[in-house]
């Protein structure tokens, strides 16, 4: 499905959505009036009857909105959403030079255990973990995996059980990115502006590096200090800083064997909206993909 066809679907979904809003608003005064008449037999004061009529009428108007949305909008929106995710985005990325063997699964993503073991972000509680929008493939012949990840945990506040969000964004993994070097154990790199809760568990040793600018911006943890200095060469540290500057959002990284994990606090590129033209959403997708391209350009195969 091309951009023009998708835009027609989006426009139709938006028009139908606006119609449901208008019809729901029109129904509000009628519903309030009907309930006002039905409550008149009550012995309550006039102002109380009026308040009850407005409240119940408003609740029913919301119900009308939900029913109309399901009848008028749901089918068109689901078609727009499905084609956007499964056809348009994948086709758009596939036409970018360097990408190949792309696969997409809306309901899949990184396993909770992999996020936990990588240590790239706090994995939270398994029960409240969410993953979606898995993208697999190759870029310039190197395998990668990318998905949306949300980590959460239970929190007791004011004697009430709540669920607290820790991290929501995209996690990417690049496999076998450097034939010359592989990390023997964990190396974790966190921007200092990352809150401590986002960092989760940390490797045993906190590493001090000679690059003052890098040291000022990042915390570095490693299982083995010698391995950390072996991987984090002066050139690599410069490239990491360039990458973070280029991305412009919060970033954390973890080197593990021949895998590089990168967590980015950023919205999903696969979630379409009907309020923005497809052309504008296309720009956002290309910006998202550019993060992956920058990761390869700045970090891959650098000694």
Task: Describe the structure in your own words.
With 303 residues, this protein is of the alpha+beta class. The protein has two domains: 3-91; 98-299, no CATH class. It contains eight helices and nine strands. The protein has helices at residues 3-39, 46-94, 112-118, 196-199, 212-217, 225-231, 234-247, 278-299; strands at residues 99-105, 130-139, 142-157, 160-175, 183-191, 205-206, 218-222, 251-257, 259-264. It has a nine-stranded antiparallel beta sheet with strand order 1-2-3-4-9-8-5-7-6. Strand 2 and strand 3 form a beta hairpin. Helix 1 (3-39) runs antiparallel to helix 2 and helix 7 (234-247) runs antiparallel to helix 8. The protein is globular. The two termini are 42 Å apart. The relative contact order is 0.13. The model has no long low-confidence stretch (mean pLDDT 87).
The number of distinct β-strands equals 9
> Which strand-content bin applies to the residues?
25-35%
Q: Strand arrangement, largest sheet?
A: 1-2-3-4-9-8-5-7-6
Estimate the helix proportion, in percent.
40-55%
Shape: globular
Q: Distance between the terminal alpha carbons, to the nearest Å?
A: 42 Å
* Residue runs with pLDDT of under 50 for 5 or more positions: none
Overall mean confidence score, pLDDT: 87
Structural class by secondary-structure content = alpha+beta
């Amino acid at each position: 499905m091309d951009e023009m066809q998708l835009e027609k679907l989006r426009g139709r979904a938006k028009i139908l959505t606006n119609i449901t809003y208008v019809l729901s608003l029109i129904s509000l005064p009628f519903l309030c009036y009907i309930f006002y008449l039905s409550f008149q037999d009550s012995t309550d004061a006039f102002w109380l009857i009026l308040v009850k009529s407005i409240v119940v009428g408003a609740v029913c108007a919301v119900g009308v909105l939900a029913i109309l949305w399901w009848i008028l909008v749901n089918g068109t929106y689901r078609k727009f959403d499905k084609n956007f995710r499964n056809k348009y985005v994948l086709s758009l990325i596939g036409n970018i030079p360097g990408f190949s063997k792309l696969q997409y699964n809306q309901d899949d993503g990184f396993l909770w255990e992999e996020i936990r073991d990588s240590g790239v972000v706090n994995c939270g509680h398994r029960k409240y973990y969410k993953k979606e929008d898995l993208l697999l493939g190759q870029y310039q012949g190197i395998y990668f995996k990318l998905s949306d990840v949300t980590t959460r945990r239970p929190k007791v506040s004011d004697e009430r059980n709540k669920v607290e969000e820790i991290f929501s964004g995209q996690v990417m993994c690049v496999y076998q990115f450097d034939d010359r070097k592989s990390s023997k154990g964990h190396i974790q790199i966190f921007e200092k502006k990352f809150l401590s809760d986002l960092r989760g568990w940390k490797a045993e040793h906190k590493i001090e590096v000679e690059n003052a600018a890098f040291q000022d911006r990042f915390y570095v943890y490693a299982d083995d200090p010698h391995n950390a200095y072996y991987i984090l060469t002066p050139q690599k540290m410069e490239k990491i800083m360039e990458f973070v500057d280029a991305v412009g959002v919060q970033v954390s990284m973890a080197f593990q064997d021949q895998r590089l994990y990168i967590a980015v606090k950023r919205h999903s590129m696969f979630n379409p909206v009907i309020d923005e033209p497809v052309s504008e959403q296309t720009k956002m997708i290309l910006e998202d993909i550019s993060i992956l391209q920058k990761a390869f350009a700045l970090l891959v195969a650098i000694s």
